[in-house]
Amino acid sequence: MLVTGLSLLSSGGFVLGAPFPSPSNVIITPLNSRDELVTSRYRSTPEIIWTCLITTFLCTWVSMHPNIAGYNANWWRSFLPRCRMWLGAFAAPEFPLCIALMQWMGAKRIAAEIGHGWTPVHGHFLQMGGIIFCIDRKHQYLRVSRLVNPPDELHRAARRELEHLPITEKEILDRSKGDAVTKGITAVQTLWFIVLLAARRMQNLTVTALEILTLAYAVLNLFVYMFWWNKPLNVQCPIVVNLDRESKKSNSLSSPADRSTEKDEDQPSALSPSLPAEAEQPSGLDTSLTSSQTVPTVTADGRDTFVKFETKVNWVLTDNASKQSLFYAVMLITILSGAVYFIAWSFIFPVPVARTLWRVGCVFVTVALFGSGFVLGITYAIVSGLVTAISPSTKITQEAWTKYFAVLLGFSYIAARLLLVSLALWSLQGIPLDAHETVSWSRFIPHM
Fold first, then answer.
1. pTM of the complete model
2. How many Å apart are CA 429 and CA 18, to the nearest integer?
3. Sign of the torsion formed by the C-alpha atoms of 132, 134, 140 and 143
4. Longest Cα pair distance anywhere in the chain, in angstroms?
5. For residue 134, what are the β-bridge partners?
């Protein structure tokens, strides 16, 4: 249905607006049958804007699945990351899709590597900051890539804890603020917008540039939902897994009766060891932990401290094959998003220069990432050559220039996006009469 709708939209025949009328070419004509039809099935310009705003809001805010802000995060620390994600999704709709694709691939890799009943839901939960470790009574996040492939004893102990983590997929989804029904409703609303534009094309009704701009958000949002379908939504508190070394020794040395008493009284053994911490551990005892105990990290005044979850911690695709696959997927996503804007390539804007700017913006957002590597190599050769010619003692490394180039490319990309938004809003000034006409759904129903 999605491919069919896009093909119908791109099959030409669109007209967007017309030049502003002058007193010499204004002709007053009586209403014909089509004009009377439009007055009975009419949508105003504010209604067009409102529909696009609602769809864009669904695609950039409601559908976003942010990571956990961290351990003991207040509402403000949880709200800010979502605002940053919303701004990123609005300025560059490919951004959340790339993140969702990366996390989807990572969740599948985690579930396959850890095993022991782990599913992609567990994988999403781990790499979104849902599990934090308490090591020597201090909370900290461990890199997911090191949990998948443990390099030392600490990460091997944490890996064993994850393998025997007593939490099921159903319990993780119970922490989620959204289910299949709520996600499905948002996805259907987004799909409905695509169907609506396809129906307008089939009835030869004008589609505005603002609706084409919103169409790009809607198309990408469907893929975002596909990749984030199993990711828990708006989880606030992570699970704490205790890896305290003193607790591990006391747990191994204490008798089953003592551990049973501690469990019944809900007192973590790390806070009430049954033997001195300096006691030696007998050989042959398992040093792995089999319980998830919460040992709060507190300040001098007794309050829990905030431990931030760093996004770089959840990067699990470290091998070159995965990075290459992700890179090609991102390029394909960018080309798909930019191709939607080409639907309005032949639209008539209020002034000719506006259409030229629209075409330039379309080309830039489509090929910006695809051709970035080629442009990076050329610009580095030119800049390094000029710097060396001016000051032979000064050298610019390729790594440093890559950072500068990435910042420049990012700002240019956002500027091109904002240009397209401005042009789409400006083009609403001179839209023709049939752009205000609504779809006649009865024409799609066979009747005598």
1. 0.71
2. 9
3. negative
4. 101
5. 139, 242
